[in-house]
């Protein structure tokens, strides 16, 4: 299982170099991503029976999947599969226009597989040190993807991304060193397993709370940089707006969740050791509210539609952080549910911007008019996506945001709930004011012909749209039990 | 004896990072980085030799020693010197904040790290506490170095100094993380260095300078 999950992206990333036919290259990657999706679903089925999947043999204790990592793994592979499908149309079109060469296409597939490989490693390991290494590796694999077009702006964004994330994440390592120190002091026999999550959570009450508190701050700052919490978010809008759209979708829909996963793992240990969630909760809620405020302010002044979506990612990570910070069963359920909704909706929006960019050749909102008339499917998906991401029913995001607010009320955090509602309203207004002009009116540029580009791109958008609507109306029972199991893991309820 | 030697070495590493702040030219701070790496290598040698004589078996930290010597003492400074020769157009002032003020700020950073670590009640071992204070200070100074330099090379050196601080923390407080983690860490950071180096050339080609101040297209 673990071998397959790690070998597939490595193989697919290598195999794309061996062929010269672009269709074969596209299909290699697509097949790889599809089999990853299949394997992650198999893993989920196995988890529903046995609760955890452990590795044996020489890698004993290194790999470990439970509901939490299985769930994020499922989101990752699902998004990667859809993005791979979309890439065929996006990069196929760019190849046709000679914006990129065949070599660049291979580079894209190779690096995106490396990117996914490092995320899968982060999600399947239980060693906190290896988790850190894998999350740092995601930065390295995606730096060239952000700077893919090699123009001034792209290189600037990539450099910022590389430097800010590598430095930020250094603090997380310091936190992990402290975590390891606390486990070697409290439990001297456990040299090798001292960094294993299972070991740490089982012995959480023996660890020293004062060390864990400071370790949590370091880890929150470190991984929080990667998640995009304000005020460490400055790399995020640049990287998301300058990367090619499929890469933006991966960054926003998948990478942020993986970094958040690192925080969740530590959160569970620290909460269990401290015996309450007050300390971690306050920190998370503070960062969450700050992120939402930052997003609300910056959404209002952007001129670039991809940057608006990037700020919206910061906002949604803030909402997830608040859900985790409140730390009641409802709020954690809402945070996890929100993770899925956000990943799907934001991927859809970024992929839609890819279609728009290919058509209009600009990222400026002011030079785009009459989108719905020009590109009916993309336009409609984009409009509905904007409503979904700002929290309109019947989409999934509405349900999870609603649950978060309800959870805040139940925990008597009225100010938090009020702030959340206020800034969600501001962001909604900002989105509508900023983006609505793109959709209506008449397209003045006569060079832009009506019609979609190809059939694959719009299809992917429709699939994602269906997922977001479906999950907002009805949560299937296997999905619900998965979310419940994950909530219990984070709260530390249930059997070992 | 052993702890005294380690204390001395870690203080020397801290002083070398102060020295780094005082360096004006690119070449000078690359040399300072090399000195710091030699000191770090000595620390790892000391840790591994002691654990080998105590436990009478092979200790994996010695591999880290070899890696530090090969990469951080020899290859990375060499590559950086070559790079800085290639991309340096004119010798100009490379810092925002004057050196005396930088020094005072760094003293403040050391005090800050001392305050943060000293107040953790859970660390009862005084030596571990000291090592953590030194390493956190080095990390903070590296961070300050990064934000106070305008050239891309300066930022890379700052990153490498932060890395040195992390290695020091890992080695001294816990006597080495599990081997797989240490090795993974090392190669991760090596790749990070490589990629940053490639980006320096890219920045140099597209912006015709490695002055980070020119990277101002993306705002807000």
From the N-terminal CA to the C-terminal CA of chain B, the straight-line distance is: 54 Å
- DSSP E strands of chain B, number: 0
Q: Summarize the helix and strand pattern of chain A as letters.
A: HHEEHHHHHHHHHHHHHHHHH
Instruction: Please state the CA-atom Rg of chain A, rounded to the nearest Å.
Output: 22 Å
Shape of chain B: globular
Hey, roughly how much beta strand do the residues of chain A contain? under 5%
Low-confidence stretches of chain B: none
> Quick one: biggest sheet of chain B?
none
Oligomer: heterodimer
In helices, the fraction of residues of chain B equals over 70%
Quick structural gist:
The complex is a heterodimer of chains A (496) and B (220). By secondary structure, chain A is mainly α.
Account of the protein in words:
Chain A is mainly alpha-helical. Chain A has 19 helices and 2 strands. The radius of gyration of chain A is 22 Å and the shape is globular. Chain B has 220 residues and is mostly helical. The termini of chain B are far apart. The mean pLDDT of chain B is 87. The chains are: A mainly alpha (496), B mainly alpha (220). Chains A and B meet through helix 5, helix 6, helix 8 and helix 9 of A and helix 5, helix 6 and helix 7 of B.
Tag the structure with descriptive keywords.
heterodimer, A: 496 residues, mainly alpha, two-stranded antiparallel sheet, 19 helices, 2 strands, globular, B: 220 residues, 7 helices, 0% strand
Topology:
The complex is a heterodimer of chains A (496) and B (220).
Chain A: H1 2-15, H2 22-50, E1 53-54, E2 64-65, H3 67-96, H4 102-124, H5 128-146, H6 152-186, H7 197-202, H8 209-227, H9 235-242, H10 245-274, H11 278-299, H12 305-326, H13 329-360, H14 371-374, H15 376-389, H16 396-410, H17 414-439, H18 456-473, H19 477-491
Antiparallel strand pairs in A: 1-2
Chain B: H1 2-22, H2 26-55, H3 61-87, H4 99-118, H5 126-148, H6 152-174, H7 179-207
Helix pairs in contact in B: 1-2, 1-5, 2-3, 2-6, 3-7, 4-5, 5-6, 6-7
